[in-house]
Amino acid sequence: MTVSPAPDPLMMRVYKNDKIGATAFFRNRNFINLIVARLAALETKSVNVLLQACSIGAEPYSIAAVARDRGLDIAIDTTDIEPDFLAAAQRARYPEIITNSMTASENKFFKPIEEGLVEIDAALRAMVSFLPPQSLTDPMPGTYDATLAMNVLTYLSPDDQTRAIATMAAATTHYLCLTAFHPDSIKSDIESVGFEPVMEDQALIHNAWGVRVVPGGAAPGTPEYSWMVPPYNTDCDDYAWRYCAIFQRKNSFWFYSSR
Fold this sequence. Notes:
three-stranded antiparallel sheet; globular
């Protein structure tokens, strides 16, 4: 496996055979802050989260850092389809350059260990548990307050996206967090499993995805269509689903949990 920095120092790109991942710490602060706040508001002493397709670990550690700062008791399970990506995430060592664009509050979780490298704080690492490799369409390993599949549904076909969302929703009690999905079918996929868009900060979150947001987006039918998106707008009837990153279970939708 090779790891190379993208032009933006926050971004890391990883490669292993035909597997490619792009990830960054605190990539979308608006999103992280809102989902942590929503989870903190649940009427429970602790919350548990599953983060799918974690690549080399930036997203689960970012959520853990924000949750820890807010005093939220959270347990994060995470996995990826590529074992080498998971192994790198567990090592929790990264190029020091990633800290250049972090706030002081974020930077405190990264400890220099040798020239050019930093390591995630041990207490933060303890908040994240690593599961065996799995894909989005594999059965869920448990029941979670929130399930996240960020910037990964783009690699599935529309039919597989429908199956993956159904699988995740069946084991998720409150929030599905999804990005880079097939936009023309996301409304039906979400409605069919009893979820609805969270409108709070929706435009802020969408427009903060950086290089993914381009004027006009990508043409339908192209490989970039689910990845490159236009700036937030309300011109289409399904904009609330198409530009959403956080979906919540409808209050009227009955759900049974054995927890």
